[in-house]
């Protein structure tokens, strides 16, 4: 019996470290093959490994593999990057259910940077909160079921970090903890519940299995905040 091979290796993390130190288009062009081999291919393999479990959770998840739907962009528009660097030294694989219109919805995700791996659930309001899942589904439910978040905190709080965002004086402000009060939900602009995993765990053959367990455990958060039925 062939032993399953790890999807990610040290080369993935080394690529992100090198990119962070050489954040220029010339360097990226010279290392395009490394990017394809150690970032693109492993992430696409991870998508294939996780998709069956995600679709079992809900068939409305998008698993098509399109960059915008499932993979974050490594390059950014330098016109809007404050630090003027054209690339992000990170990559995210994300699963979101279909949502009517252009509003934002919740996601199950995992991300890799040069020295960190995270996995969890996140939801943001986007540019139009009233049209997002946060405004249309999550806030009304949280106000109607005020004990729900506290129940999730009791269920998940020991294993996962939770924080959320509001806007104060025009600036995004991070709040550590769980948004358990009704007033929190009236001004909440984003909510993240995640596990921090070391790079060595991503380099194990069991990494997809570990992510599947995390996604199953956090799926109720996405269902409550983003799915109408």
Describe the fold and architecture.
By secondary structure, the chain is of the alpha+beta class. The chain has nine helices and six strands. A six-stranded antiparallel β-sheet has the order 1-2-3-6-4-5. β2 and β3 form a beta hairpin. α3 packs across α9 (about 205-225). The longest helix has 26 residues, at about 30-55. The radius of gyration is 18 Å and the shape is globular.
Order of helices and strands: HHHHEEEHHEEHEHH
How do the strands line up in the largest sheet? 1-2-3-6-4-5
The Rg value, from CA coordinates, equals 18 Å
Kindly, what is the distance between the CA atoms of the first and last residues, rounded to a whole number of angstroms? 43 Å
- pLDDT < 50 stretches: none
- Percentage beta strand: 15-25%
Average pLDDT figure:
93
Tertiary shape: globular
Major sheet summary line: 6 strands, antiparallel
Q: Count the helices. How many?
A: 9
Relative helix content: 40-55%
Number of strands: 6
**Class based on secondary structure composition and strand pairing:** alpha+beta
Output the keywords.
229 residues; alpha+beta; 6-stranded antiparallel beta sheet
Lay out the secondary structure:
Blueprint: H1 10-21, H2 25-30, H3 32-57, H4 67-70, E1 90-95, E2 107-113, E3 117-124, H5 133-144, H6 148-156, E4 161-168, E5 171-176, H7 182-187, E6 190-197, H8 199-202, H9 207-226
Antiparallel strand pairs: 1-2, 2-3, 3-6, 4-5, 4-6
């Amino acid at each position: 019996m062939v032993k399953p091979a790890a999807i990610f290796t040290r080369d993935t993390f080394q690529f992100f470290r090198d990119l962070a130190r050489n954040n220029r288009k010339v360097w990226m062009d010279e290392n395009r093959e490394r990017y394809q081999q150690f970032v693109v291919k492993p992430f696409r393999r991870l998508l294939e490994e996780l998709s069956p479990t995600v679709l079992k959770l809900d068939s409305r998840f998008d698993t098509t593999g399109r960059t915008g739907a499932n993979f974050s962009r490594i390059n950014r528009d330098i016109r809007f990057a404050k630090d003027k660097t054209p690339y992000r030294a990170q990559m995210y694989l994300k699963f979101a259910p279909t949502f009517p219109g252009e509003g934002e919805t919740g996601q199950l995700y995992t991300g890799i940077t040069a020295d960190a791996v995270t996995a969890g659930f996140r939801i943001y309001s986007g540019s139009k909160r009233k049209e997002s899942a946060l405004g249309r589904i999550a806030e009304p439910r949280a106000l109607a079921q005020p004990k729900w978040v506290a129940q999730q905190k009791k269920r998940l709080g020991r294993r996962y970090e939770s924080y959320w965002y509001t806007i104060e004086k025009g600036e995004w402000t991070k709040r550590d903890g769980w948004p358990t009060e009704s007033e929190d939900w009236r001004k909440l602009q984003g909510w993240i519940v995640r596990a921090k995993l070391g790079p060595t765990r991503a380099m194990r053959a069991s990494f997809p299995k570990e992510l599947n367990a995390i996604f199953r455990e956090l799926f109720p958060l996405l269902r409550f905040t983003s799915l109408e039925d």
